[in-house]
Write a structure and sequence with these properties.
Layout (H helix, E strand, L loop, with lengths): L2 H7 L11 E11 L17 E9 L5 E4 L5 E2 L6 E2 L5 E4 L2 H5 L6 H10 L10 E4 H11 L7 E8 L2 E6 L5 E4 L6 H8 E2 L7 E9 L2 E9 L1 E2 L13 H10 L5 H6 L13 E4 L10 E8 L10 H6 L4 E8 L2 E9 L2 H10 L1 H20 L5 E5 L7 E7 L9 H7 L3
Parallel strand pairs: 3-15, 7-9, 7-13, 16-17
Antiparallel strand pairs: 1-20, 2-3, 2-12, 4-11, 5-18, 6-10, 8-9, 8-19, 12-13, 14-16, 17-18, 19-20
Helix pairs in contact: 4-10
């Protein structure tokens, strides 16, 4: 394809897809019409490993707390009327705060919570958001244009999320989801985003998957905060302070190889929120309904079983639906979508092969929604030597 034809397609709101791309160097393509499912079973039956968690802090320099603790869900009397979403919100907080190395917090948190862990046998490091896009592509469903950065570190493929914008300003008609979440949850550590990292298998691929969850939820909520009664929950949360003596005693903890990093990680020595009480929060109107089946993929890829949904009419919430998605429901879902899940594994394997074909140099994969047939195109980056992590982290977490 000539460069003039490529340039003619880069118009409107999709210029961001091509930033830093050597568009004349098409390395490979993944065509949906020729995609074959991988031979291995994709199953959630085995328990995932919680590798680490962290919470972003709103500080002048990029700072995360390790371990992270999800905001606590708090029941409130209904009905309740809340304002529409307004203000500036993160689309991708990791990239917004650390544009050069958006996956770096994963490794800071791992160093603190699993200091002996190494990534030599990890096949893929990826975000849940990206897995969902690759799954929708493999399912031949509607998926908006997307781009991911591709790297290989030793034997590990990094699939780095790219967003058109990392923050957005909501002025009107933005819905009620963010305000609802803020109204019904309380953070114990002034978190601006709780992130979790799991290790589990997709077929034969050993994957490390990062994602954000909205809250923690237990049917007996008093157990979440040291046995406090619901009545004293808010008081206890307000009394927790980042500058407490416990945290100041541990704040100095930092492995030597992290000291040169722009990112500061504060080890709190607290217990992380268990994966078993992680929860996603949604809002819906009576007219549209919850459409619970559409929420399963997000829950499945994050191995998150609690779903909390608030029903409203123009911001007046009159019903909260809390449901536990049983492991059997995950299995039913993956049986139904086994073929596209296996095709997604094939896509990931092909991405790896194409990057290796480029001698492991930084590549960019682009999917344009308007193209038919559906195809992911992989190009060489204009900065081929770029890495997904600082050298000190690579030297520490890979032994070969």
């Amino acid at each position: 394809m000539s460069s003039s034809k490529i340039r003619s397609r880069r118009r409107g709101n999709e210029d961001w897809l091509w930033k830093g791309v050597s568009s004349h160097q098409l390395i490979g393509t993944i065509d949906y019409t020729t995609l074959e499912p991988d031979s291995s079973l994709v199953s959630s039956a085995s328990k995932p490993e919680l590798l680490c968690t962290y919470d972003w802090q709103d500080r002048p320099n990029p700072t995360v707390l390790v371990p992270g603790n999800a905001p606590v869900w708090t029941d409130q009397q209904l009905p309740i009327t809340i304002p529409e979403d307004h203000g500036v919100y993160f689309v991708d907080q990791n990239a917004a705060r650390l544009p050069e190395y958006p996956l770096e917090p994963v490794f800071h948190a791992t160093a603190s919570m699993n200091p002996s862990f190494r990534f030599d046998d990890v096949d893929v490091v990826v975000n849940r958001n990206t897995l969902r896009k690759l799954f929708e592509f493999s399912k031949n469903s509607f998926v908006e244009s997307f781009r991911v950065n591709l790297y290989i570190v030793k034997n590990t493929l990094f699939i780095e999320r790219c967003s058109q914008i990392t923050t957005e300003r909501v002025r009107q008609n933005g819905g009620y989801g963010r305000t609802f979440e803020k109204q019904f949850t309380k953070s114990t550590n002034k978190s601006t985003g709780h992130h979790r990292v799991l290790r589990y298998h997709l077929g034969m691929l050993n994957c490390v998957v990062r994602f954000e969850v909205d809250a923690s939820y237990q049917e007996n909520q008093s157990e979440q905060v040291g046995g406090l009664s619901n009545g004293s929950l808010a008081t206890a949360i307000e009394g927790l302070n980042l500058e407490s003596s416990k945290r100041s005693d541990t704040e100095a903890f930092s492995p030597k190889f992290l000291e040169s990093s722009r990112l500061k990680s504060i080890f709190t020595a607290e217990e992380a929120t268990p994966q078993s009480i992680a929860a996603e929060i949604k809002t819906f109107t009576e007219k549209r309904g919850l459409r619970r089946h559409l929420r399963i993929p997000q829950l499945w890829f994050g191995r998150t079983h609690w779903l909390i949904a608030g029903r409203h009419n123009n911001g007046t919430f009159d019903e909260i639906d809390v449901s536990y998605v049983k492991p059997e429901e995950f299995i039913d879902w993956e049986i139904q979508f086994q073929e596209p899940l296996r095709k997604m594994v094939t896509v990931i394997a092909q991405l790896r092969d194409i990057v290796e074909k480029n001698k492991g140099f930084h590549c960019v994969a682009i999917f344009e929604q308007k193209e038919r047939p559906k195809v992911i195109k992989i190009y060489a980056s204009s900065s081929p030597g770029k890495k997904p992590l600082p050298r000190s982290l690579i030297e520490h977490f890979w032994t070969s």
